[in-house]
Amino acid sequence: MSVATLERTRHMQLDVTDRFSAAARLVAAECYGRDGVFAYQAFDWVNSALFDGRLPVPMILWELTAHGKCLGWTRASRDRSPRIQMHPSTLGGTEKTNPWGVPPDVLGPAYALDVLIHECMHVSVEILLGGSNGPTSHNNPRWVGEVQRVGNLLGLDFVAGRSVTKRVPVESGELGPSGKPKTRTTRMTEDGATVPFHAVYTFPHGVREELGQADAYYRSKHLPFDNVLTGPCHTQLDVTEIIGGSE
Q1: What's the pTM?
Q2: Which of 16-30, 210-224, 232-246 has the lowest mean pLDDT?
Q3: Mean pLDDT over residues 103-116, rounded?
Q4: Distance CA 87, CA 71 (A)
Q5: Residue 127: DSSP 8-state
Q6: H helices within the chain, ranges in order?
Q7: Strand pairing class (183-189; 80-86)
Q8: Please, which pLDDT band fits residue 146 given cuts at 50, 70 and 90?
Q9: How many CB atoms lie within 10 A of CB 235?
Q10: Distance, CA of 45 to CA of 191 (rounded, Å)
Q11: pLDDT at 68
Q12: Which residues contact 162 (CB under 8 A, 6 or more apart)?
C-alpha cells in the first residue's frame, strides 16, 4: 500500500471517528437531556486527564442495567466503538430505596463520575492494553495495573493487588499425619497490597471507602471540570489535588 493510500485511509478513519463522536453526543443530548450532555463532558475530562486522550469515544447510555444489578456495564472490542451503559440512579434516583447499599445522599454527579472512570478503565484494558489477562475482567494484572496507575493520578495513596489462592493453617491448629499443621485453601489479596481486593474490584469507589474519603468526596459534589449538572469547576488545582484531596 502506498504512502498516499495510507494517508487517505487515515483521514477516512479520522473522519468516521469525528462523525461518530458528534453523532453520539447529539443522540445523548436528545435522549437524556442534561444527563446526556454531562456524560460526554465527564468522558472528555476522564479521557484527557487519565488516559492521555487515547480512548475511543464510546456510546454512553443512561439506561437500567440488567436486573439493576450493576452500576455500569461496558462492551468494548477493537472492531467497533465501545458502549458504556450507566445506571441512572448513580446520579441519584428512586429506582431503589438504598441502591447497591450506597447511601442515597452519596449518589450524584461525583459518584457517577467514578462509575464512568471504572467503565473507561475497562475500555482501556480491552482496547489499549490487549484485553484481560487473568481469570476475570477485574482479577488480572492489566486491570490491577490500571487501578494503580489511575489511582495515583487521582491522588489515592494505596497499593493494589490481585485476589490469589493460598494455603493457610486451619484455625484449630490441628496437626496432620506428618506432624505439621493442617492447612486449607482460601482466597486473599496478594502480599504487599494495602487494600482488600474488593476495593480493587469496585475502584475508584471501593478504594475511597477503604481510605475513609468516600463520604466527604461524594457529598462535596465538586467536580474538576465545568459541567451542566454542578456548574463551573470550583478550583484551579490539578487532577491529583482535586480528586485525591484529604478530608
Answers
A1: 0.84
A2: 232-246
A3: 93
A4: 5
A5: I
A6: 3-32, 34-51, 109-123, 141-153, 197-201, 205-210, 214-220, 239-243
A7: unpaired
A8: very high
A9: 12
A10: 34
A11: 60
A12: 134, 139, 140, 141, 144, 189, 190, 197, 200
Q: What percent of the chain has pLDDT over 70?
A: 79
DSSP notation for 202-243: TTTHHHHHHTT-HHHHHHH---SS-BTTTBS-S----HHHHH
Say if strands 163-169 and 183-189 run parallel, antiparallel, or are unpaired.
antiparallel
What was the pLDDT predicted at 9? 46
Q: What integer pLDDT is reported at residue 168 of this predicted model?
A: 66
Only one residue has cell 484455625, namely 171
Residue 34: phi and psi, rounded to 5, are -60, -35
Crossing angle between the packed helical segments 34-51 and 109-123, to the nearest 10 degrees: 50
